[in-house]
Amino acid sequence: MQNPVSPTKPGTLASPQERARAVQAVLDKDGPEMDRRRELTQEVVDALAGQDLLRMLLPKSMGGQEVPLVDYCKANEALAWPTPARPGS
Q1: 4 falls within a domain
Q2: Residue 89 in contact with residue 31, Cβ under 8 Å?
Q3: How far apart are CA 67 and CA 86, in angstroms?
Q4: What distance in Å separates the CA atoms of residue 10 and residue 7, rounded to the nearest whole number?
Q5: Residue 21 lies in a domain
Q6: Structural domain of residue 23, as residue ranges?
Q7: Closest Cα to residue 23, out of 51, 3, 1, 42?
Q8: C-alpha to C-alpha distances, 68 to 29, 35, 58, 65, 73, nearest whole angstrom
Q9: How many domains does the chain have?
Q10: In whole angstroms, what is the distance from residue 41 CA to residue 32 CA?
């Protein structure tokens, strides 16, 4: 399976919020299926991991990003907030 979201390369300056927005297309596509199953699809998990969004609060000493809480919240808001093209917005 090919990942539709290209992962962020180490050293790029994409903020957590920008990386979260890059996952929106997969969330839009798989949203109804996730609602039906009440769990994330593997494609969404792969997209989140590909954008390195699963280690935002993990300390740097443990291989995480240790992002400030405000940036973490903004990234979560970008994942949860409907885009203008998203149904129900």
Answers
A1: no
A2: no
A3: 28
A4: 9
A5: yes
A6: 16-80
A7: 51
A8: 30, 30, 11, 9, 9
A9: 1
A10: 10
Question: For residue 89, is pLDDT > 90?
Answer: no
47 neighbors 31 (Cβ within 8 angstroms): no
Q: Which two tokens stand for residue 39?
A: 């769990």
pLDDT at 12: 53
54 within some domain:
yes
pTM here is 0.74
87 exposure class (CB count in 10 Å sphere: 0-12, 13-18, 19+): exposed
**Does residue 53 sit within a domain?**
yes
Nearest-10 Cα torsion for 39, 53, 24, 30: -20
Residues 81 and 78: their CA atoms lie apart, in Å, by 5
Residue pLDDT, tens place only, 46-77 = 999 999 999 999 999 999 999 999 999 999 99
Output the domain CATH number for residue 26. Answer: 1.10.540.10
Residue of 6 and 40 predicted with greater confidence? 40
